[in-house]
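Fig. S4 source data, part A: sequence.
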Amino acid sequence: MVKKQRKNNSKKKKTSSLENKSLNQFLWLVVFIVVLILAIIFVPKIYHEIFNKFEYGGVKFEKMESANLVLYHGQFPIIYKGNLSAIFNTYFRTDPRDNHIPIETNLTLGKNVVVSFGEDVQYCKDIMIGQIGLTQFIRAFPFVKNVSSGATTDEVAELYNISKFDCKNASMDRTVIIIQKSENASIVSGSKNNCFILNVGDCKYLPTVERFVMGAMAQINEKSID
């Protein structure tokens, strides 16, 4: 009788041990599934925060990717007379950290701005995207009252029925931005104050315009960019 009871106790202990082992395995499985779910949810978010968000020139950027397009979305608060006037949203096609077109001038804007095109610039790829982005940036400043287009040569002015403008037309109230083809891309001062020349090289139109916008934002933020 005693032996039989010992056998029953031994069986109960083995059964209890197996049940505990199964329970532990089940709990580990639950923990693993929970950790896996949390990883699936949070790892992409952490990756996005670390690798797709950055600050450059005092502007916060976020890399936005779709199937065929990568954009760099920046938000730039515009302060006018001590108050927040607007938040300008820019969408660069080029990573601003990789755009090293030299800026050799201090950029300013008057209340009237003329964007004047040099010969053959109108045939550059992405001219419309670049021009829309540049105009939107200039118009975001409340002190700018008028933005218009011009041409640096009589031929281009006549072809598009616009006025001729060059650095001679720049003044305290009028900023002239000349966009022209050149050997190398650069952003420099013109021959007169408040005149700026965007040399787009061999049609690096969009990167040069984006660099102008980035340079202006960085200078306003009193930040240096390379």
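Fig. S4 source data, part B ends here. The chain has two domains: 1-51, 101-220.
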